[in-house]
Amino acid sequence: MTGVLLVGGASRRFGSPKALARVHGRTLAEIGWETLAFCDERIAAGKTADGLELPFPVLDDGTEIRAPIAGVAAGLRAAAHDVAVVLPVDTPRVDATTLRLLAQRCADAAFPPTGPLPGAYRKTALPALEAALAAGELALWKATEGLDVIQVDVDPALLANVNTPDDLAFL
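Above: the chain sequence. Below: its structure as tokens.
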């Protein structure tokens, strides 16, 4: 299984790169990377032009677009395995057990009822994601509408999303 960490968000509401924000002395990127340590392969997808100083390489998603769909597609394209679990850098409470569950239930994709991230995606989802990107459709949930998607119940507390400095302080 491949683990894909999305590190290329615009961070407009946060005000600085979320990947570098710290919780208990570790960056959100480090937390996400460690969460994906159970995977056979790990890929961090984002924008190399951002110049984020991370302790692992970043795969450039190859687009000007600042949307998760670009990172998911890039990660799937580069993945050595058929299934990839995708973790946004701003969901530091998601654990390996949850990601394994998503991967086990994955048809074309599997994610919580709240939305397509975090999620598990098969390479069979890649054509739909690439078609959506080519058409300018940036909403990942919309790009998955024609896929065989399994919704998996996930503890809502694990899905806490860091969008603002106040969200980070709450963690």
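The chain has six helices and nine strands.
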